[in-house]
Design a protein that fits this description.
The protein is α/β, with parallel strands linked by helices. The chain has two domains: 186 residues, Vaccinia Virus protein VP39 (Rossmann fold, 3-Layer(aba) Sandwich), CATH 3.40.50.150; 47 residues. It is 30% helix and 35% strand. The chain contains eight helices and eleven strands. The strands form two sheets. The protein has a seven-stranded mixed β-sheet with strand order 3-2-1-4-5-11-10, with helices on both faces. A four-stranded antiparallel β-sheet has the order 6-7-8-9. A hairpin with a 2-residue loop joins strand 8 and strand 9. Helix 3 crosses helix 4 and helix 6 crosses helix 8. The protein is globular. It starts with a helix and ends with a strand.
Length: 242
């Protein structure tokens, strides 16, 4: 099984990343809705949506939102916990395949949910699939880590404790991939998961976008949506079709 299908569907994934909560989502999305801006009553695709925190907040604020994800557990959680919200739907779907072509005003790809694949060609094909969901005037928003900044800190080892579980985490650069190995024990059982993301640079993204006819409109460097520079932790792209 590929790492993201195994890890993202694990009950331990939301435990480790529990700090990625609704409050953080609200702060980021409030900034995004104001700065981009996201017009009310527009159609948004959140892909991959995880457990739905971004999708739910946008739906609460008047947007028509679809969340798709490859994890059955995440989709089941989102459907159950946000079933009473209007203008919100969730589907099990692979982001490498267009969902509703030419339909959405905005397609959102948050929290470094890209670069999971083995080749540049697969990355480009995935980007094309995301862009194909946009209508003529739609915008694609991609939130990725600042690769150059992260690489400067590697290798790195750290421990995090969440819900009584101690996670031992090792980050390193392996070829063209940044890998995070996550080891822990729970209820007498030992576990090991890995995250593996291609070390895609700012220039790499520009090459991808040029090949696909995507035009960068804005580039931000963090969740406060301050302008990007090399010191910032994120690269948040706002893109339109040429």
């Amino acid at each position: 099984m590929v790492w993201y299908k195994d890890w993202f569907n694990s009950p331990y994934y939301p435990i480790l990343y529990q700090h990625r909560n609704e409050q953080e989502a609200r702060i980021f999305l409030d900034k995004l809705c104001t700065k981009v801006p996201l017009q009310k009553n527009t159609k948004i695709l959140d892909v991959p949506c995880g457990r739905g925190r971004h999708s739910a907040y946008l739906a609460q604020n008047g947007y028509h939102v679809t969340g798709i994800d490859l994890s059955p557990e995440s989709i089941a959680y989102a459907k159950e916990n946000y079933k009473d919200l209007p203008n919100l739907e969730f589907f099990l779907h692979d982001m490498r395949v267009p969902f509703r072509e030419g339909y959405y005003d905005y397609v959102l790809n948050f929290f470094t949910s890209f670069g999971y694949f083995e080749t540049e060609a697969e990355n480009i094909a995935c980007l094309q699939a995301l862009a194909n969901n946009l209508n003529e005037n739609g915008k694609l928003i991609i939130d990725f880590f600042n690769t150059e900044k992260i690489v400067q800190t590697l290798p790195l080892q750290e421990q995090k404790v969440a819900q009584g579980i101690t996670f031992f985490i090792k980050k390193e650069l392996q070829g063209k991939f940044i890998t995070k190995t996550i080891r822990f024990e729970d209820k007498g059982e030992s576990y090991c998961f890995q995250e593996r993301v291609m070390a895609i640079t700012l220039q790499d993204f520009r090459i991808y976008f040029q090949q696909l006819g995507l035009v960068p409109i804005q580039i931000y460097g963090n969740y406060l949506l301050e302008p990007y520079d090399e010191s910032k932790p994120r690269i948040i792209w706002v893109l339109a079709n040429k």
